[in-house]
Amino acid sequence: MKIRVEHLLLPLLLCNLSGASYAQDGMLSLEMLYHPTKKEKFDTKPLTRLTWDAQNRLIETQSKDGVVQQFVVNPATWEKQALAADGNILQLMLAAGIAEKEAKVQIDKLTPQIKPELKAYLFTYKNDLWLLDLAAGKVKELTHTPDVAEDEAILSPDLQSVAYLKGNDMYVTDVVTATEKRLTTGGNETTFNGRLDWVYMEEIYGRGHLRAFWWAPDSKKIAYLSFDESKVPVYTLSGDHAQPIRTERTRYPKAGDPNPEVKLGIVDMAGKTSWTDSPYPGKETLIVQVGWTPDGKLLASWQDRVQTWLDLRIYDGQYRSRQVLRESGPAWTERLPLPVFLKDGGFIWESDRTGHRHLYRYDSQYQLKTAVTKGDWDIRTVYGIDEAKSRVLFAANEANPIGNDVYTVNLDGSHLQKLSKESGTHYARWNTSYTHFIDSWSSLKQPPRQALFSDAGQQLKLVDDAGMPEKMQGLKLAKVTQQQVKSRDGFLLESLLFLPPDFDPKKKYPVYQHLYAGPMAPQVTDRWNSNLWHHFLAQQGYVVWILDNRSASNKGAVSAWPIHKKLGQLELQDQLDGLEWLRKQGWADMNRIALNGWSYGGYMTSYAMTHSKAWKIGFVGAPVTDYRLYDSVYTERYMGLPQENAEGYDKGSVLKATRDLSGKIMIMHGTMDDNVHPQNTIMFIDELIKNGKDYSLQLYPGAGHGPRGDWTMWSLQKAKWEFLRNNL
To answer: Which residues contact 518 (CB under 8 A, 6 or more apart)?
Structure first.
């Protein structure tokens, strides 16, 4: 449920909704931010598109009018030499019969993928798969079934075959002959072969990614998951926004419901499937990672249903498995990346076993050798392993709890070195020999920059400095301050303040507070944001306040574990501690505080408004109002099974506390939200009515979990402005 939608509200000083959308005296208007035809863009300039190729060359890619041009850049002199043109991609597509307008759309999607060493690229046109073959200088249609869509296509490692899904079965097509072969059978409404179901997609493998199959390194077989959904309850969204009604039916397990039954299989190119053994007979489990070792052994990570442990398993030639290691802890265990293997057969493993994400080295017999990193900080990303210099390259928050930096450390755990110098959030791209890296970074006060660095962290070339967007330079922006707030037990909570440009500490200001509050999903991050919602509010006389409760701070799993089996309770305690700090500053009008949140933030806002009297009004977006109504995998990770933790579910419920609502609320929900179902809002409204409580409601016809579309957002913002203006 990691989604957040922040909406700025117009405060007491009125803004002319029908007037010009240009800044006057540095002031913003609602129209400048949201009006479909009058809004302005405040984005920074795009950074130069730079990558490394397989030969360690630095490549700059440019695209214009369907022509993709690449240059080899000399890191020492920054001189550029054009690579031999692979051809005008637009002309190749036109020659294949693709309409020019659609061809340009495809080129825009393909351009970021293009690398000098890779000559083959897949795309979809009119429900069929096509291949852009730069080596042969042509575009080729691979499938010929426009009435049936192919999706989740991926080329084999040797680039000779492409695997994909049609419906709920897997197929493969030979690139040279365009001959199709069906690999699996039996896919139907309740059997998914190679396709993730809803809950695995949303909560395990990542929203929007439906592929549940993985090519072996030798391109001769594919591992895949097969789902039996027959016992999973169906949730129906009626689709009353259209005629005829656009009903959507999704098999969606709520907390305690039957989960899909999942098997792990391996299919060869003849269509023969071998099923792996079931290592936990009689137990409900999840398969949360699947992959292959460099030498072609199958790997998979398994968890118990409520995710208290994680086992990494490796499979032999007959697909029998052995347990390599087990992770467990005092609460839940996060899904962990698969290991990164070393040339000696050992591997580097990420783990939260100490309460912080760190790296561990295992030998070729899968025995722990050493902790590579340690401390009260967390690994964010492993960039790679430089075995020539026996070191790991990674990003971590060791020096900046709300950002990350680029580091190296020796494989034996010695010589931890921070390579990045400027504070902020960094994203490094190393060349394959780990002698240089390109770093893109920004901070709360620094727009994006990009530079070339040596492996020792020496800046060799500042390539891009986006600077303040021109349209922002004349604006009266808020004063942004970042501070740590001590909770009642001493934990340092991270927070942001947006103070009015003419802030006077002797005055009293109403406060607009935004939160998300969900586990390990911080809102206070040290990166640039061109979104001016909060600056607009500050201009109108509001103090904007963002506070991450400890479980949301992402300061290690240890900071989130205390909420296990009692969602809502400790998050609210931290937020109230934050308000106590705010009260002590002297300038906050504690009788005029608004709380705003979406998704988990919507839950937290409705929970706070029914379990305290600290906030005068609340903006409740797409809320979970009782965790018995949310999906099994996410909910049970943090709450356990409802039948085993009835007290925790009751204490975390908004529905069961509706009679205690304090203040006024505006509820917002998309009518086709397949994630946090509208059922949550409808049942909440039912309880509000039964308890004589007033409410305001905004529904967004046809909208999903996050409302989209210019007119929808404009309507939403106007409604929130009116509610704020009339009630705070």
So the answer is: 1, 2, 552, 599, 600, 601, 604
Which whole-number Å values give the CA distances from 539 to 8, 138, 412, 527, in the listed order?
12, 55, 53, 22
- For residue 111 the two structure tokens come to 């351009």
CA-to-CA distance for 85 and 431, rounded, in angstroms?
Answer: 23
Model confidence at 5: pLDDT above 70: no
What pLDDT does 90 receive?
Answer: 87
Question: Which structure tokens are listed for 208?
Answer: 């929007």
Phi, psi (5° rounding) for residue 567?
Answer: -55, 140
Asked if omega into 217 is within 30° of 0 (cis), the reply is no
User: What are the pLDDT digits (tens) for 32-90?
Assistant: 999 999 999 999 999 999 999 888 999 998 887 777 888 999 999 999 998 865 567 88
As a whole number of angstroms, the distance between CA 650 and CA 219 comes to 51
Q: What is the pLDDT of residues 385-399, one digit of tens each?
A: 999 999 999 999 999
End-to-end CA distance of the chain: 29
**Which of 53, 55, 56, 74 lies closest to 461 in space, CA to CA?**
74
Cβ atoms of residues 39 and 530 within 8 Å: no
> In angstroms, what CA-CA distances link 19 with 23, 250, 432, 533?
11, 45, 55, 19
Kindly report the pTM of this predicted structure: 0.94
CB 639 within 8 A of CB 565: yes
Any idea which residues carry the catalytic annotation? 599, 673, 705
236's CB contacts (< 8 A; 6+ apart) are 247, 248, 249
Considering all CA atoms of the chain, what is the largest pairwise distance in Å, rounded to the nearest integer? 78
Region 323-328: what's the mean pLDDT? 97
Residue 290 has pLDDT above 70, yes or no: yes
**Helix 600-611, helix 569-585: angle, nearest 10:** 70
Beta strands 358-362 and 347-351 are: antiparallel
The residue with tokens 């499937």 is: 273
